[in-house]
Amino acid sequence: MESPRENEEFDLLPQEEGEDVTSILAEMEALQAVFDADFRKGPMDRAQALVRQALEVRTPPTTTEGRLTVVALSHCLGTPRRDLALVRPKKSRKWFRKTFDSLATGWMRWLTMGDMAVLGTIAKMHEGSEDDGAVETLSLNFWAQAIELLAQGDREGAKRFFERATEVGAQFGTSTNPTICWTYAASYFSLP
Hints:
Largest sheet: none
Shape: globular
Radius of gyration: 16 Å
Oligomer: single chain
Number of helices: 10
Distance between the termini: 59 Å
Order of helices and strands: HHHHHHHHHH
Number of domains: 1
Number of strands: 0
């Protein structure tokens, strides 16, 4: 007899083509260093060196998640990648995927160009059915609230919702958590 999980269809975020363990580990180390620089007064030069290294070993991005990671990494070096923020994601009929792509693209455009269109995206976010996983939906809702407050200039309020989104993601191992962590870290990274 099959377990219920074997019959469920999950909309996990796709892996980057050619992504390997070295790249993943370099990005994780860079992310930790950026968080340390943001919130623990860690060394900025170490964070930027690890960010540079992560970009060097990374393959060109082919997914929304990959583009967002490169945008976040590049932001930490002071080299905005507006070109990646302008790439339109593939169309999807699933609420989760559409919402994720819209939030990710909106955040990239806000970070690189100051584009406030993400606020309209967030306002429309609840149109349609939320038929995907409840935990992913909860995480996306917290993420949307964080981005909205960030775009409105409420950095402290945004921080609370980023924390909630990353806590949910870490506790349940959501596929969106690495992307949400990068938006959180890069949003608070200040260049000297």
